[in-house]
Amino acid sequence: MSIASRLHSAGKKVTSVVAATAVTATLMVVGAGTAEAANRDWLRPDATGTCEWDASGHGVQRCDVWSPAMNRTIPVLVQPSQRGGDAGFYLLDGMRADPHQTGWTMYSDAPATYEDSNINLIMPIGGAGTFYSDWIAPGNLSSSDPQVIKWETFLTAELPGYLQQHFGVNPHRNSIAGLSMGGTAALNIAARHPEMYQQAMSFSGYLTTTAPGMQTMMRIALLETGSLNLNSMYGALISPRRFENDPYWNMEGLRGKDIYISAATGMWSGGDWNIPLWDRIVGWGLEWVARNTTVAWELKARAIGLNPAVDYPPTGVHNWGIWNDQMHKTKGRVLDVMNAW
Protein backbone atom coordinates (compact mmCIF):
# COMPACT_ATOMS: atom_id res chain seq x y z
CA MET A 1 0.00 0.00 0.00
CA SER A 2 1.34 3.47 -0.86
CA ILE A 3 2.00 6.14 1.76
CA ALA A 4 -0.89 8.21 0.35
CA SER A 5 -3.28 5.25 0.67
CA ARG A 6 -2.16 4.58 4.22
CA LEU A 7 -2.67 8.23 5.18
CA HIS A 8 -6.12 8.20 3.56
CA SER A 9 -7.09 5.01 5.46
CA ALA A 10 -5.81 6.40 8.78
CA GLY A 11 -7.69 9.63 8.16
CA LYS A 12 -10.95 7.72 7.64
CA LYS A 13 -10.42 5.83 10.94
CA VAL A 14 -9.74 9.06 12.85
CA THR A 15 -12.81 10.68 11.33
CA SER A 16 -14.93 7.68 12.28
CA VAL A 17 -13.66 7.73 15.87
CA VAL A 18 -14.28 11.47 16.17
CA ALA A 19 -17.77 11.11 14.71
CA ALA A 20 -18.63 8.21 17.01
CA THR A 21 -17.33 10.12 20.02
CA ALA A 22 -19.38 13.16 19.07
CA VAL A 23 -22.55 11.09 18.64
CA THR A 24 -21.99 9.36 21.99
CA ALA A 25 -21.41 12.67 23.75
CA THR A 26 -24.52 14.12 22.13
CA LEU A 27 -26.61 11.15 23.24
CA MET A 28 -25.23 11.45 26.76
CA VAL A 29 -26.13 15.15 26.93
CA VAL A 30 -29.57 14.58 25.46
CA GLY A 31 -30.12 11.60 27.75
CA ALA A 32 -29.08 13.60 30.80
CA GLY A 33 -31.35 16.45 29.81
CA THR A 34 -34.22 14.05 29.27
CA ALA A 35 -33.65 12.42 32.65
CA GLU A 36 -33.59 15.82 34.34
CA ALA A 37 -36.71 16.98 32.54
CA ALA A 38 -38.44 13.71 33.41
CA ASN A 39 -37.83 14.18 37.13
CA ARG A 40 -41.38 15.55 37.37
CA ASP A 41 -42.94 13.30 34.77
CA TRP A 42 -43.55 10.12 36.75
CA LEU A 43 -45.40 9.25 39.94
CA ARG A 44 -43.41 7.83 42.83
CA PRO A 45 -44.54 4.90 45.00
CA ASP A 46 -46.10 5.61 48.38
CA ALA A 47 -47.61 3.71 51.31
CA THR A 48 -50.85 3.02 49.46
CA GLY A 49 -49.30 2.09 46.11
CA THR A 50 -48.57 5.12 43.97
CA CYS A 51 -48.67 8.86 44.51
CA GLU A 52 -51.32 10.86 42.67
CA TRP A 53 -51.10 14.02 40.63
CA ASP A 54 -52.35 16.84 42.82
CA ALA A 55 -55.05 19.18 41.55
CA SER A 56 -52.74 22.15 42.14
CA GLY A 57 -50.72 21.13 39.05
CA HIS A 58 -47.17 22.25 38.32
CA GLY A 59 -45.84 18.71 38.69
CA VAL A 60 -46.97 18.38 42.31
CA GLN A 61 -47.58 14.84 43.56
CA ARG A 62 -49.75 13.86 46.51
CA CYS A 63 -48.12 11.00 48.41
CA ASP A 64 -49.36 9.06 51.43
CA VAL A 65 -46.38 8.51 53.70
CA TRP A 66 -46.63 5.97 56.51
CA SER A 67 -45.83 7.26 59.98
CA PRO A 68 -45.04 4.48 62.49
CA ALA A 69 -45.00 7.07 65.28
CA MET A 70 -48.59 8.19 64.56
CA ASN A 71 -49.72 4.80 63.21
CA ARG A 72 -51.29 6.29 60.09
CA THR A 73 -50.45 7.68 56.71
CA ILE A 74 -49.74 11.40 56.36
CA PRO A 75 -50.47 13.08 53.01
CA VAL A 76 -47.53 15.10 51.72
CA LEU A 77 -47.38 17.20 48.56
CA VAL A 78 -44.04 17.10 46.74
CA GLN A 79 -42.96 19.10 43.73
CA PRO A 80 -39.77 17.37 42.54
CA SER A 81 -36.83 19.59 41.63
CA GLN A 82 -36.80 20.66 38.01
CA ARG A 83 -33.37 19.28 37.16
CA GLY A 84 -32.77 16.56 39.73
CA GLY A 85 -31.43 18.77 42.54
CA ASP A 86 -31.24 17.11 45.96
CA ALA A 87 -32.15 20.06 48.21
CA GLY A 88 -35.51 20.15 50.00
CA PHE A 89 -37.70 23.09 51.02
CA TYR A 90 -40.33 22.32 53.67
CA LEU A 91 -43.36 24.63 53.91
CA LEU A 92 -45.46 24.34 57.08
CA ASP A 93 -49.05 25.53 57.56
CA GLY A 94 -50.61 27.60 60.33
CA MET A 95 -52.96 26.91 63.24
CA ARG A 96 -55.96 26.06 61.07
CA ALA A 97 -54.16 23.68 58.71
CA ASP A 98 -56.68 21.88 56.52
CA PRO A 99 -56.75 18.06 56.91
CA HIS A 100 -57.14 17.51 53.15
CA GLN A 101 -54.96 20.13 51.47
CA THR A 102 -52.21 22.58 52.33
CA GLY A 103 -52.73 26.33 52.39
CA TRP A 104 -49.61 26.67 50.25
CA THR A 105 -51.67 25.40 47.30
CA MET A 106 -55.16 26.57 48.36
CA TYR A 107 -54.30 30.20 49.15
CA SER A 108 -50.80 30.54 47.75
CA ASP A 109 -49.01 29.95 44.46
CA ALA A 110 -45.95 28.25 45.95
CA PRO A 111 -45.79 25.46 43.31
CA ALA A 112 -45.97 27.96 40.44
CA THR A 113 -43.40 30.18 42.12
CA TYR A 114 -40.87 27.36 42.47
CA GLU A 115 -41.73 25.52 39.26
CA ASP A 116 -38.57 26.70 37.50
CA SER A 117 -36.31 25.94 40.48
CA ASN A 118 -33.99 23.03 41.13
CA ILE A 119 -35.33 22.37 44.63
CA ASN A 120 -37.82 19.83 45.97
CA LEU A 121 -40.87 21.56 47.43
CA ILE A 122 -42.27 19.57 50.38
CA MET A 123 -45.68 20.49 51.81
CA PRO A 124 -47.11 18.25 54.58
CA ILE A 125 -50.90 18.25 54.94
CA GLY A 126 -52.64 18.47 58.32
CA GLY A 127 -51.30 19.19 61.79
CA ALA A 128 -53.86 21.83 62.81
CA GLY A 129 -53.11 23.14 66.28
CA THR A 130 -50.23 20.74 66.86
CA PHE A 131 -47.29 23.16 66.46
CA TYR A 132 -45.76 20.22 64.54
CA SER A 133 -44.33 18.91 67.80
CA ASP A 134 -44.30 15.57 69.62
CA TRP A 135 -47.08 15.57 72.21
CA ILE A 136 -46.65 13.67 75.46
CA ALA A 137 -50.30 12.53 75.51
CA PRO A 138 -53.14 12.05 72.99
CA GLY A 139 -54.49 15.34 71.73
CA ASN A 140 -58.12 14.36 72.29
CA LEU A 141 -60.01 12.81 75.18
CA SER A 142 -61.19 9.70 73.34
CA SER A 143 -60.04 6.45 74.93
CA SER A 144 -61.23 4.33 71.99
CA ASP A 145 -59.50 6.42 69.30
CA PRO A 146 -56.69 8.45 70.87
CA GLN A 147 -55.12 11.07 68.62
CA VAL A 148 -51.40 10.39 68.76
CA ILE A 149 -49.46 13.49 67.71
CA LYS A 150 -45.79 13.01 66.82
CA TRP A 151 -45.27 15.52 64.04
CA GLU A 152 -41.66 16.36 64.85
CA THR A 153 -40.73 12.68 64.67
CA PHE A 154 -42.53 12.37 61.35
CA LEU A 155 -40.86 15.44 59.81
CA THR A 156 -37.35 14.66 61.03
CA ALA A 157 -37.09 10.86 61.36
CA GLU A 158 -39.71 9.30 59.06
CA LEU A 159 -40.42 11.56 56.08
CA PRO A 160 -36.75 12.29 55.19
CA GLY A 161 -36.01 8.62 54.49
CA TYR A 162 -39.00 8.33 52.18
CA LEU A 163 -38.03 11.52 50.34
CA GLN A 164 -34.43 10.38 49.94
CA GLN A 165 -35.44 7.00 48.56
CA HIS A 166 -38.09 8.14 46.11
CA PHE A 167 -37.30 11.79 45.31
CA GLY A 168 -33.54 11.94 45.88
CA VAL A 169 -33.79 14.57 48.64
CA ASN A 170 -30.64 14.82 50.74
CA PRO A 171 -31.68 14.57 54.43
CA HIS A 172 -28.93 17.05 55.31
CA ARG A 173 -29.67 19.73 52.68
CA ASN A 174 -32.92 21.39 53.66
CA SER A 175 -34.61 24.71 54.23
CA ILE A 176 -37.74 24.98 56.38
CA ALA A 177 -40.28 27.79 56.55
CA GLY A 178 -43.69 28.23 58.12
CA LEU A 179 -46.41 30.76 58.75
CA SER A 180 -47.92 31.62 62.14
CA MET A 181 -47.90 28.32 64.12
CA GLY A 182 -45.70 26.86 61.37
CA GLY A 183 -43.18 29.68 61.81
CA THR A 184 -42.86 28.78 65.48
CA ALA A 185 -42.34 25.14 64.48
CA ALA A 186 -39.85 25.92 61.71
CA LEU A 187 -37.41 27.64 64.08
CA ASN A 188 -37.91 25.01 66.80
CA ILE A 189 -37.37 22.05 64.49
CA ALA A 190 -34.33 23.58 62.77
CA ALA A 191 -32.75 24.42 66.14
CA ARG A 192 -33.26 20.91 67.48
CA HIS A 193 -32.08 19.18 64.32
CA PRO A 194 -29.28 21.43 63.05
CA GLU A 195 -27.72 18.62 61.01
CA MET A 196 -30.75 18.61 58.71
CA TYR A 197 -31.25 22.30 57.89
CA GLN A 198 -29.15 25.10 56.46
CA GLN A 199 -31.96 27.64 56.64
CA ALA A 200 -35.03 28.41 58.80
CA MET A 201 -37.67 31.09 58.17
CA SER A 202 -40.66 32.30 60.16
CA PHE A 203 -43.48 34.34 58.62
CA SER A 204 -45.62 35.89 61.40
CA GLY A 205 -44.59 33.16 63.84
CA TYR A 206 -45.05 33.27 67.61
CA LEU A 207 -41.45 33.21 68.76
CA THR A 208 -41.77 33.68 72.53
CA THR A 209 -44.48 31.20 73.48
CA THR A 210 -43.78 31.26 77.24
CA ALA A 211 -44.10 35.03 77.53
CA PRO A 212 -46.84 36.28 79.91
CA GLY A 213 -50.27 35.55 78.46
CA MET A 214 -49.04 33.38 75.60
CA GLN A 215 -49.91 30.05 77.22
CA THR A 216 -53.48 31.24 77.82
CA MET A 217 -53.75 32.43 74.22
CA MET A 218 -52.43 29.10 72.94
CA ARG A 219 -54.80 27.13 75.20
CA ILE A 220 -57.82 29.01 73.82
CA ALA A 221 -56.59 28.65 70.23
CA LEU A 222 -56.11 24.89 70.59
CA LEU A 223 -59.53 24.39 72.13
CA GLU A 224 -61.10 26.38 69.31
CA THR A 225 -59.09 24.64 66.61
CA GLY A 226 -59.89 21.04 67.43
CA SER A 227 -60.75 20.70 71.11
CA LEU A 228 -57.07 20.03 71.76
CA ASN A 229 -55.61 20.17 75.27
CA LEU A 230 -52.45 22.24 75.63
CA ASN A 231 -51.35 20.12 78.61
CA SER A 232 -51.26 17.09 76.30
CA MET A 233 -48.63 18.89 74.25
CA TYR A 234 -46.19 19.96 76.94
CA GLY A 235 -47.46 18.76 80.30
CA ALA A 236 -47.97 20.94 83.36
CA LEU A 237 -47.54 24.71 83.24
CA ILE A 238 -44.09 24.50 84.85
CA SER A 239 -42.91 21.60 82.66
CA PRO A 240 -39.45 22.16 81.12
CA ARG A 241 -40.93 21.01 77.79
CA ARG A 242 -42.78 24.31 77.48
CA PHE A 243 -39.44 26.10 77.37
CA GLU A 244 -37.84 23.47 75.15
CA ASN A 245 -40.59 24.17 72.61
CA ASP A 246 -40.31 27.96 72.83
CA PRO A 247 -38.09 29.41 70.06
CA TYR A 248 -37.00 32.15 72.48
CA TRP A 249 -35.27 29.55 74.69
CA ASN A 250 -34.39 27.21 71.85
CA MET A 251 -32.10 29.05 69.45
CA GLU A 252 -28.57 27.75 70.07
CA GLY A 253 -28.97 25.13 67.33
CA LEU A 254 -29.48 27.91 64.78
CA ARG A 255 -25.89 29.09 64.96
CA GLY A 256 -24.36 29.08 61.49
CA LYS A 257 -27.76 28.84 59.80
CA ASP A 258 -29.39 31.35 57.51
CA ILE A 259 -32.30 32.76 59.54
CA TYR A 260 -35.10 34.95 58.23
CA ILE A 261 -37.98 36.28 60.32
CA SER A 262 -40.84 38.58 59.42
CA ALA A 263 -44.04 40.00 60.90
CA ALA A 264 -46.22 42.99 60.03
CA THR A 265 -48.05 45.38 62.38
CA GLY A 266 -51.63 44.24 61.85
CA MET A 267 -52.61 47.66 60.47
CA TRP A 268 -55.01 47.44 57.52
CA SER A 269 -54.04 48.46 54.02
CA GLY A 270 -54.53 47.48 50.40
CA GLY A 271 -56.20 44.10 50.00
CA ASP A 272 -56.91 43.88 53.74
CA TRP A 273 -60.04 45.95 53.18
CA ASN A 274 -61.50 43.06 51.18
CA ILE A 275 -61.34 40.80 54.25
CA PRO A 276 -64.53 40.61 56.41
CA LEU A 277 -64.46 43.08 59.29
CA TRP A 278 -64.28 40.50 62.08
CA ASP A 279 -61.43 38.68 60.34
CA ARG A 280 -59.61 41.98 59.98
CA ILE A 281 -59.97 42.68 63.71
CA VAL A 282 -58.77 39.19 64.67
CA GLY A 283 -56.02 39.40 62.05
CA TRP A 284 -54.82 42.67 63.53
CA GLY A 285 -54.58 41.16 67.02
CA LEU A 286 -52.82 37.99 65.91
CA GLU A 287 -50.29 39.87 63.79
CA TRP A 288 -49.64 42.36 66.60
CA VAL A 289 -48.75 39.44 68.89
CA ALA A 290 -46.60 37.85 66.18
CA ARG A 291 -44.76 41.14 65.65
CA ASN A 292 -44.00 41.67 69.32
CA THR A 293 -42.85 38.11 69.95
CA THR A 294 -40.73 38.16 66.79
CA VAL A 295 -39.03 41.42 67.78
CA ALA A 296 -38.33 40.02 71.26
CA TRP A 297 -36.82 36.90 69.67
CA GLU A 298 -34.65 39.02 67.36
CA LEU A 299 -33.27 41.10 70.22
CA LYS A 300 -32.20 38.00 72.14
CA ALA A 301 -30.82 36.34 69.00
CA ARG A 302 -28.58 39.32 68.29
CA ALA A 303 -27.52 39.48 71.93
CA ILE A 304 -26.15 35.92 71.77
CA GLY A 305 -24.43 36.43 68.42
CA LEU A 306 -26.96 35.27 65.86
CA ASN A 307 -27.55 37.50 62.85
CA PRO A 308 -31.08 36.94 61.52
CA ALA A 309 -32.38 38.76 58.47
CA VAL A 310 -35.60 40.57 59.37
CA ASP A 311 -38.48 42.16 57.50
CA TYR A 312 -41.10 44.16 59.36
CA PRO A 313 -43.72 45.49 56.91
CA PRO A 314 -45.54 48.58 58.26
CA THR A 315 -48.98 47.19 57.41
CA GLY A 316 -50.71 43.84 56.95
CA VAL A 317 -53.03 41.58 58.96
CA HIS A 318 -52.46 37.95 59.91
CA ASN A 319 -53.52 36.59 56.55
CA TRP A 320 -52.27 34.95 53.35
CA GLY A 321 -51.65 38.33 51.73
CA ILE A 322 -48.50 39.02 53.73
CA TRP A 323 -47.44 35.36 53.78
CA ASN A 324 -47.55 35.15 50.00
CA ASP A 325 -45.53 38.35 49.83
CA GLN A 326 -42.89 36.80 52.09
CA MET A 327 -42.83 33.57 50.10
CA HIS A 328 -42.15 35.52 46.89
CA LYS A 329 -39.72 37.88 48.58
CA THR A 330 -37.57 35.05 49.96
CA LYS A 331 -37.43 32.86 46.85
CA GLY A 332 -34.03 34.15 45.76
CA ARG A 333 -32.70 33.81 49.29
CA VAL A 334 -33.81 30.17 49.49
CA LEU A 335 -32.30 29.26 46.14
CA ASP A 336 -29.05 31.06 46.93
CA VAL A 337 -28.56 29.42 50.32
CA MET A 338 -29.54 25.98 49.03
CA ASN A 339 -27.64 26.38 45.72
CA ALA A 340 -30.76 25.31 43.86
CA TRP A 341 -31.23 27.69 40.94
TrEMBL record:
InterPro entries recorded: AB_hydrolase_fold, Esterase-like, Mycobacterial_A85_antigen
SUPFAM superfamilies on file: alpha/beta-Hydrolases
Pfam families: Esterase
Molecular functions (GO terms): acyltransferase activity, transferring groups other than amino-acyl groups
Segments crossing the lipid bilayer: none
Domain of life, per lineage: Bacteria
Name used for this protein in its record: Esterase family protein
Lineage: Bacteria, Bacillati, Actinomycetota, Actinomycetes, Mycobacteriales
